[in-house]
Amino acid sequence: MFVVSPCPLPPPTASCRWFGLGRKNFKFFSMMSESDTTTPPPFSETHTPASNSSMPQLRVFSRTRYKNRPKTTTLHLLQNNHHHLSKKKVDLPDIEDFAYKGSNQLTQSRKSSEVYSDMTLVESEVASPRPSGESPAHWDKVLEGIRKMRCSADAPVDTMGCEKAGATLPPKERRFAVLVSSLLSSQTKDHVNHGAIQRLLQNDLLTPDAMNNADEETIKKLIYPVGFYTRKATNLKKIANICLMKYDGDIPSSFEQLLSLPGIGPKMAHLVMNVGWNNVQGICVDTHVHRICNRLGWVTRLGTKQKTKTPEETREALQQWLPKEEWDPINPLLVGFGQTICTPLRPRCGECVISELCPAAFKETSVPSSKSKSSRRNKKL
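^ that's the sequence the OP posted. Answer follows.
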């Protein structure tokens, strides 16, 4: 702001100087003589020399900001781990205020532009993530509770999972059946996948030689309606040919070789290694295992408390602490649990015996409102 005091007008030789203050571009000016080169201090009174008493003069109070003046921040006031600020009022940078956490650990947070002496710096309430490799609390009790709920074996995976494919076939043919079932299981429910495997078996197409010689259109009709059946039929033909050419009619015996097959991902490769070759190299993590492990708080992204975003991240985090003897049975155990109790939508927490140990219990059990139900009904009509 500026205040103009009543005085005569300036001489004709005077020139205007503009002073910009900060980001708000408030402009202040002072009418000064060309011979006067002295920059006025903040809140100073500037005027032209009274060379002629009869000549009008204008006096203007202006405010000047020194660009090179160092800014004082809260960091300058933190010494010897004290939790109080000094009595002095200070200016802060764009990201103001700092929450103090331990020695030399400062967390920035956007707050007010000024901090006063009666404000106390508090420790951050965010707990540090669980160290890598450390098992979560009560995980063994949780696992035992899930086993008790799964003892009835009433989930689809118990009778129609990939592990059951070709159970009556010779070992070599069964391995191929497990590989085919794993490929078809992606984006497909167990009962749909099981039906496709049964139709291939009934038509004597569940061997590499028969699959390689079969027409692709025939394979598509037999595996329909599995997800992406057209692409999967193409991949099955390619896999059958690779098994004949490179592995003498058998399937690859290493994890890396299985991953090189078209359409085979880490989850499928681990399942085939576990079931087909009885060689446990990792945990088979599908959407059920991924979802349940995050609900239980068993897995987090590396160095954070955030949930894992993909099944592969879940597998890596889970393998860091879960005992290796649990790597093989954990998949059918949690898949069945996810199909019956810990379902994707509206999990049945009221029926779960380990809900007291689950941090996500009763947080996703809400039933859609009548308004949303009626809107969906109107869409169908």
